[in-house]
Amino acid sequence: MRSVIQRVSEAAVTINGTKVSEINSGLLILLGIEEADDNNDIEWLTKKIINLRIFNDENGVMNKSLIDVNGNAIVVSQFTLHASTKKGNRPSYIYAAKPETAIPLYEQFIAQMELQLNKKVGAGQFGADMKVALINDGPVTIIIDSKNRD
Which fold has domain 2-145? Predict the structure, then answer.
């Protein structure tokens, strides 16, 4: 499970002209799921994300987590995070999970985030053509892969 986490001052997801999710201060999480992912990846990655100390404290030092600042989150599925660009110029997505695997894991990931944050988490719609707008705060952008826990 691969994620790109962006600290945002605001973010929104629009599908077919309708805004389906919107947050102020918090995290926009782009989530790529591969066939080998399972509940262990969800558990590890959600815990890592919500405890990541990337929000400023009173001294302007990144020392607070999403939980500490009572921040919000939006999770957007993004299979292109598993693009392989080794050969040629056209990315291959052979490592990205098929919908029958990815959709349940995506939904479980969101549910686990909601459980750990004790609040509703915004989301995109799996497989939809989404327009994602954000103001990256910092900018702070971090990539985390559950298969690379070093």
Answer: D-tyrosyl-trna(Tyr) Deacylase; Chain: A; (3.50.80)
Give the catalytic positions in this structure.
Answer: 80
Classify residue 22 as exposed, middle or buried by CB count within 10 Å of its CB (0-12, 13-18, 19+).
middle
Alpha helix stretches (DSSP H) within 30-98: 39-51
- Predicted TM-score of the model (pTM): 0.94
Q: Domain ranges in the chain?
A: 2-145
Residues 22-38: tens digit of each pLDDT: 999 999 999 999 999 99
Report the distance separating Cα 76 and Cα 62, nearest Å: 24
Percent of the chain with pLDDT over 70: 100
